[in-house]
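Researcher: First entry.
Model:
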Amino acid sequence: MTFVEGTTGVVVIDPLLSVETAAAAAALALYREHRGERPVTGIVYTHSHVDHFAGVKGVTTQEDVDAGRVPVLAPEGFTEHAVAENVYAGTAMARRAAYMYGAALARGPQGQVGAGLGQTTATGTVSLIAPTVDITTTGQEETVDGVRMVFQMAPDTEAPSEMLIHFPDLRALCTAEDATHTLHNLLTLRGAVVRDPHNWSQYLTETIDLFGDTTDVAFASHHWPTWGQDRVRHFLGVQRDLYGYLHDQTLRLINKGWTGSEIAEHLQLPPALKREWSTHGYYGSVSHNLKAIYQRYMGWFDGNPAHLWQHTPVEAGKRYVEFMGGADAAVDKARGSFEAGDLRWAAEVLNHVVFAQPDHAAARELLADTYEQLGYGSGNGTWRNFYLSGTTELRQGQFGTPTVTASADIIANLSPRLLFDALAVQINGPEAWDLKIAVDIVLTDTGEKYRLTLFNGVLTNSAAPQPGAADVTLTTTTRQLSALALGNLSPEALTEAGIDTEGDTTVLDRLASVLDPGDRDFPIVTP
């Protein structure tokens, strides 16, 4: 979180991940302890990741925003992207984020020591106040409480909706997360859509061209500032060249016939880039970023027919173990690899044994030891956390998904289309094969009407006029519609939520019966 002092108060940029950490009891309190009781007079979200907006109600209120006292500025598409990432694969992403950030690990030298970009993610209450001012074009200028800001759009870089901010009167540049003091992720280990390193590099070239001669200090959302015009230009150039080199050289080797794993194993940064602190792989890594670029352009298949129709891990594990002479023999051989320091091979062999025989105590114990040593040897915070989380589960049992589910603010900001999509990905397809259901949704505050149709196991939606009558019609407002996200479609629950029903309400019971309850929590996905 960054504070920019204005004429009467302070403009807050990226108000952290939770209300508690952002609030008058923590970050804002620390500022006021040293700078006095200045009111918050503006909010800026640089991009759509939850750790950059979710503490907003710790520094201001919805009432102050609605009254026009505190404008909220964000890049175009912010709200849609801020909530969408928590809808489609949010449950799986949150589960893996627990590994990535070491949520179940003890804090200390043998456990979680950091995540590379920072120490770890915060816990607490997630909030969201929708923007009141959309930033849509590079060069757009806004003034809040006397603070003049010029914006550069940078979509589809570190986030799908992102922008940089120049403060011409202060000769300062906020680089959001597009230029940080570590190599960032092109594909975060928690899972995401692969980010575009070519775009990323090109936008940093534009940043230098736009602001390089008028900037004396650059600061990012997570890291310390860089002081001095020449040092700023150098830093931005290094970050640009970092992502450009990874992108261009990966494509060069792809076109020579290399696979993603081969590229990741052999491609190195040039010495001039390796010498720079900001290129080191504390958060992203050269290895998994190169594989991500391969995935972006070539997909999951590496062109080897043997990889086109492989067995599942359990079935492959059984066959590998049999070929290796049984589980005990495989573990003995893996122990030799472990003792020789070939930890990667030991992990691969033991992984097959554990998938084939999950209760094999010696395999679990040695695999836990192997992951532990791989974690201790990793300079990348997220790799370390993944390895040590695997160790923890092998020794203590699965720790589930230690994450915070989405707040009412996140759910309330789902657009109707996103809400319908959220329901669609919860449909248990095989159980819905024989159902045919039509539901009309009428929104009285906007005049919109949608038809939801469940057919062939797919829930589709359309705002166009549809032939025939729906089985049931739901009439409500956009905000009250969010009650559907809870999955309780009984007439009583809908009435209590302010949703009127007309028609055959039994179809709602049939619809609810094929919603998979395991996917209804809408977990918060960290960056």
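Researcher: Second entry.
Model:
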Amino acid sequence: MIKKSIKNKIVLSFLLVLILPTTIISIMSYRISVNLLEEKVSDSFLSNLTFIGDNIEKELEQWEQISKFINVNPVIRNVLMTSYDNDLDFYYDMKRVEQQLDTYSINTNIFAYVSSLVVIGNNGRNLLYGEDATSLDIDRIKEQQWFSEVNSLNGQVMWLGIHKNIANYRTQNESVVALGRAIVGEKNNKTLGTLYLTFKESYFTGLLKNIELLDGGRLYIVDNRDHIVFDSETLLLNESFAGMDEIRAQDDKGYFLTEGTNQEQLLLAHVPITKYDWRVVETVPYASLTKGTDGIFRNTIGVFLISFILTSVIWFFVSSHIVRPIRTLTNSMKKVQEGDLTVRVDIERPDEVGVMNKHFNFMIKRIQELFQSNLEEQEKKKNAEYKALQAQINPHFLYNTLNTIRWMAIIQKSDNIRDVVEVLGRLLKNTIKHDGPFVTVEEELSNLRDYVYIQKIRYNHNFDVTYDVDPEVLSMPCVKFILQPLVENAIFHGIEPREESGGEIKVSMKCHEDQLYIRVWDNGVGMSNQEREELISRVSTPKQHGGIGVSNVMERLKLTYGEESAFYIRSEKNEFTEIEMIIPAATSNVESASKIG
């Protein structure tokens, strides 16, 4: 049943993991191939258009250089600043101007494309140069909106884009590209005249005639007034370019799909000539971009079918190889579920199934070890509790007996005996009072003070005990009877062997960073390093040495707090001995702590 279920799942996973993703991947790979092709072509467009745009910008800068030459030429300035009394003087000066322009034209090849160069002087004289200059209507030029704008720019160039020649009759160049500029004085910036420079639109045809385009591709140069300055098919010159809103929405260079005039889908790429707010635009039919992708699709399908058949055969053998070890591992898990922790699986494989087998065996081994460790810990706890019960020596009986002795001492007026018996009775009563393993620090100190009182009487006040306890720890729970064995050890093994009097014991209880630090220090005979190591060895193995003193305290701390507790012994011969315990500083009450214990 398990094998059948696994095989069904493997078949289902085969369908989900292989067939479906492979189909999706095949379709996606086809689309990605098409998109990459589109992106590659589009990026190629942008690179070519950027190159063309840079060249156009340099060419436009040359036309601006001509306007700059006109503006600073001293001969032209002199003509514009002279008031002529007769036309003959003006005629001779114009000849000089033409000589200046002819000389300048020798140094540049673009002068051949000048349609007209007109300087309309404020002195009433106009400088005319170029094949269409004499055909222009000067009055109509002055009426143009841009004419006043140019004169307000203080000598800066204004590109006027492409437009029809401003003439009353036919000119040699119907459409021209123009720029305007105010001619200003050198010293006072006073306007001397207005330059109107036009050049033939065929200038761009000669410039871009060697540009190669894709099948159906078309190149445009669009001026700052959104009119077509250059059309590779020369059909839309001086027409407004459709789609400029979408182009300007992208701001920088880019491309997008658009629809042509015959409902044909086009890819449009554009690059700005930022300095002049012109654009270089290229369109290409989308169909020409995806030409050849049908072959890519057929190849993709062929590769998919071959891969599918090969993978199906391989998957059959792989699935059979996977089922057997998984079934073996499943049967072993069932045995563990029934309580058999001795089961082990022997599957030696370098793959994930083999790793899973090793982890399973390791897990079962750890469970066995933890189970055994738990049994040993419970046994230790029972032994410690048994020893503690033995140490109590039937406190009910002792308490009743001591109470009888106390009344006998009262009757016979033996006050010392009465006080000792009363303190011992209270100490035993506190032992009976709490059945759980925890008391508050305040109660533990109270029991310790009663014990110290008895020992002081016994030793004739040969020692003194001082307490340094933070008030905040008094309400904290701690394991009961952990101070008395340590103080008893200090008295019997530290203070009593001293030859001189003046024994001192210090009990300190401090809380720091959620830890309760308990220290019992005495100025007794102390221990050498060897004696200290022997004591640590004895208290660390209470089963071998017995006793309910320091070793009992240490064992109960470990059973209660585990690794969260610490126990240290420090000593120097004839100097001191200090025992330090570190336990968690619980903030809960004794009842809650007893439940935890």
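Model: Note on the second entry: Residues 450 and 554 are 23 Å apart (CA to CA).
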